[in-house]
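Extended Data, panel c. Modelled sequence:
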Amino acid sequence: MDSFHDVRFPVAVSFGATGGPERRTEIVALTSGREQRNLRLAHSRRHFDAGTGVRSLNDLYEIFGFFEARRGAFHGFRFRDPFDMKSCRPDQQPAASDQQIGLGDGAATQFQLVKWYGDGADAYARPIRKPVAETVRVAVDGVETSDFSVDLATGMVTLATPLGAGQVVSAGYEFDLAARFDAERIEVSLTAFTAGQIPTIPIVEILA
């Protein structure tokens, strides 16, 4: 049974995490010497070790409480990716024109938040399903509007009225990703911790 708690992993710890996206590719070597490569998943999956973000015993205490409240790996939660958490560059503030999320057809009013990586025909659109409340901004043909709502559980933007055919809808936002603990237990020695040995706290992105 899928289960997701709409709470965020302690941000101070997540900002010190290490990790990033994983792309799983199946590679078959052909007799000709060429390779045949197939993507096993349509979207990348991010893995992190939050142990590198633990700076104090208070951090550990907070993580233990969070782990128990999520029942370990059973319940998912929001996680702030320290490297990729905005519709824009990390040192900028989101603007309504950051990411194109759709084109009007005279009828549609709902558009999924996405973030684009790369340019042209090879660009990749990553669905953004966990936007942060109060940060989402939307524009139609470059003019910002407030006539919209956004589902914070799915990242679906709903406009008050349909767009005209060919009108561009864009958005800016901050976002979390859905994640869970990727371990059955958290193990740490107090002696080792005070000596500088950090615990391992694996976290993996999920679809929720």
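The first strand starts at residue 4 and ends at 8. This feature is highlighted in the accompanying rendering.
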